[in-house]
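Hey, can you fold this one?
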Amino acid sequence: MAETIAARICRVLTGEIIDGRLPPGQKLEEVVLAERFKASRTPIREALRELNARGLIELTPHKGGVVASISIDDLSDMLEAMCELDALCCRLSAQRMSAMQKKQLEMIHVQSKQCMDAGDEAGYLALNREFHQLLSAGTQNKTLMALIDSHRERLAPFRAAQSDVEERFTVSFDEHDRVVEAVLAADAEAAYNAMRSHTARLSIHVLERLQHSRKDD
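Sure. Predicted structure:
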């Protein structure tokens, strides 16, 4: 699926906020952004609403937004919680996933390998989302699913900050491989540890990138 104009604008602005090129307090005015991106006000407003929903800006209707202050300590807390939630999902999924869900997990993992080998970044990322959503669904716990989905959406722009890590997909796939192996074997503790290690690595890259951008200010 092609990226929408609003999604592209949101992606660009997200990167600039996380990198510190758009510092806390910076105004994001609709008319200025429309001129910059050569776009109508509609996709600009959609992008700003998404940034607001993710806590990256504070939005004023019909005017624009102001870049929010991102506390490294608060982000660290959220990432730590995400590590435990992701790992807990894997532990429960290893115990509760249906045979059909396990087969789906295998298929997604195989397709991810194909995307990685073909250099299909968009395809890999889409399958990565399916991979984690399926592991959440495998818990058979609606409360936990809602909690982790909300938390993952909140952290999505920050976790995407590790996109410039060398051999990103190779490392990610190898870590997913260990998760899949443990879940299919119904080894709850191995699944927990494999996912916790995977999420912790991503979290470290996110914090390092944000800390680096702060030093450059």
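The mean pLDDT is 89. Let me know if you want another pass with a different chain boundary.
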